[in-house]
Amino acid sequence: MEPLVASAIGALTATGLYLILRRQSFAVILGLTMISHACNIFIFASGRIVAGQPPILAEGAAGHTDPLPQALVLTAIVISFGMTAVLVVMALGAFLATGEDGVDLAGGAEGPESGGPRGDGG
């Protein structure tokens, strides 16, 4: 089972890195989401979760599982959801302002305000 989880983490990380390096902002958002999922799976798998064991010490229980990775993953899910929402709003605002879905930093100075290719009226 460990090789399967490790392969899934590696595939999510590789796909996320590939998408982050794309020029479209939607691909960058999907890439960050995939990397955050890979990190969540890594944290969850590194906590040695034991099936059928309570997360706290209880009377008559044979053992317990560590609740800290579960709390960390829950917090990371909430943070990544908020980060994704902010990035979607920023990308949508940039798309509505420029009419493009690009993340090209080189063309940032040539917008409608500077009289560049899109602001010359023709």
Q: Beta-strand level of the residues, as a percent range?
A: under 5%
Provide a count of the helices.
3
Report, as a whole number of angstroms, the end-to-end distance.
Answer: 61 Å
Look at the helices and sheets and give the structural class.
Answer: mainly alpha
Topology order in helix (H) and strand (E) letters:
HHH
In CATH terms, what is the fold-level topology? Helix Hairpins
**Which CATH class is shown?**
Mainly Alpha
> Can you give the mean pLDDT?
83
What proportion of the residues is helical, as a percent range? Answer: 55-70%
Q: How many domain units?
A: 1
Total E-strand runs: 0
Q: Would you identify the regions where 5 or more consecutive residues have pLDDT less than 50?
A: none
Shape: elongated
Largest sheet: none
Please name the CATH architecture.
Orthogonal Bundle
Radius of gyration: 21 Å
